[in-house]
Design a protein that fits this description.
By secondary structure, the protein is an all-alpha fold. Among the domains are: 80 residues, no CATH class; 105 residues. Helices cover 79% and strands 0% of the residues. The longest helix is centred in the C-terminal third of the chain and has 49 residues. The relative contact order is 0.09.
């Protein structure tokens, strides 16, 4: 019966984990599970299965150690939010790699243009010999530019990246292509300098907020690790947290911990840069 009750509660935890992971979702239409989740490099089906699965497994593991439902709930809910953080981090890493590659890529374009190559040919060569993140981003540029034109091909790359820094760079490349002539090297040189300066500023901002994020996570996790450790064995602690008073303490502590994490996350979060030249 205890195992059955634990499994039933785990199913309930999975449902709650689903809600917690989707709290920031604002869908404008019904989305299919095979479609990518907005803001994440993962399809909906894989995302939701991972979210609910890790929540259920965490609940069952902690419940197996402690035998206490309240103590098992908070770690399960917290772990259920980790897949979103992981996939968001993965996407941020991909975009950061592209951002960091732009200065070198622009200097490659500048060298090709100064050597006599046209800007479209220089961009096509960038997909073959440029920095690796830009090769992946521009791998289809040659085909699209010959079939649709240079500007539509650049716009397709811009929407695929969906990044404010890339938006600015590609918009200037479109302008340089339309203007043409001797002004192209000057535009590329100024763009490489400005992009390098922007990336240096963003790196400074990320470094300053990193310590706050680490401290907030550690302060949240440590008390719950201690709670799981002291209730993993039979004794006074497990007996206390099995009573109504102990459950009340866990609930209040969980609510206060979650509020603290939300406040710390809001305070250390960087406001997203709007995409002026691209889609929302």
């Amino acid at each position: 019966m205890n195992a059955l009750a634990a499994f039933a509660t785990a199913i309930a935890v999975g449902c709650v984990a689903w809600i917690v992971a989707s709290k920031n979702r604002r869908p404008r239409r019904r989305r299919h599970f095979r479609e990518p989740v907005p803001g994440l490099d993962v399809r909906g089906g894989r995302f939701w299965v991972t979210t609910v699965g890790v929540g259920l497994v965490t609940y069952l593991v902690v419940h197996g150690l402690t035998g206490l439902v309240p103590v098992s709930l908070v770690p399960a809910l917290v772990v259920a939010t980790l897949p979103k953080a992981y996939f968001s981090r993965k996407r941020s890493g991909r975009l950061a790699a592209v951002q960091e590659a732009w200065p070198d890529g622009l200097r490659d374009l500048l060298a090709s243009v100064r050597s006599g190559s046209s800007l479209p040919n220089a961009i096509e060569n960038l997909a073959l010999f440029g920095p690796v993140p830009l090769r992946d981003a521009f791998h289809g540029f040659g085909v699209y530019s010959r079939s649709l034109g240079v500007v539509p091909a650049l716009e397709m790359v811009r929407e695929d990246l969906s990044d404010p820094t890339s938006d600015r760079v590609i918009e200037v490349l479109i302008l340089a292509h339309e203007r043409g002539g001797a002004v192209v090297p000057e535009i590329l040189d100024d763009l490489a300098t400005a992009t390098t300066r922007d990336l240096w500023t963003m790196e400074q901002i990320r470094t300053e907020v990193l310590e706050q994020k680490i401290n907030s996570r550690v302060v949240f996790v440590l008390p719950w690790l201690v709670l799981v450790a002291i209730t993993a064995r039979n004794g006074a602690f497990r007996e206390f947290y099995s009573t109504s008073t102990g459950i009340f303490v866990v609930v209040v502590g969980g609510v206060l911990s979650l509020i603290g994490v939300l406040v710390a996350s809001k305070m250390s979060a960087q406001p997203p840069e709007p995409r002026v030249f691209g889609g929302s």
